[in-house]
Amino acid sequence: MPGPHLTEPAAMLIRALDRAVGDVARAMAGGP
């Protein structure tokens, strides 16, 4: 990780990955 000062594209990518991981976790847990 490049540190606390992420560039905007990197921050957007990290948010997208985090959202995808959350979706997978909910799907595996049998949530909506």
Structural write-up:
The chain starts with 7 loop residues before the first helix and ends with a helix. The longest helix has 22 residues, at 8-29. The protein has one helix spanning 8-29. The chain is mainly alpha-helical and 32 residues long.
Shape: rod-shaped
| Biggest beta sheet summary | none
What portion of residues belong to β-strands? under 5%
- The helix/strand order is H
Please state the structural category: mainly alpha
User: What's the N-to-C terminus distance?
Assistant: 32 Å
Number of helices: 1
Would you kindly provide a brief summary of this structure?
The chain is built from one helix and no strands.
Features:
single chain, 32 residues, mainly alpha, 1 helix, 0% strand
Topology:
Layout: H1 8-29
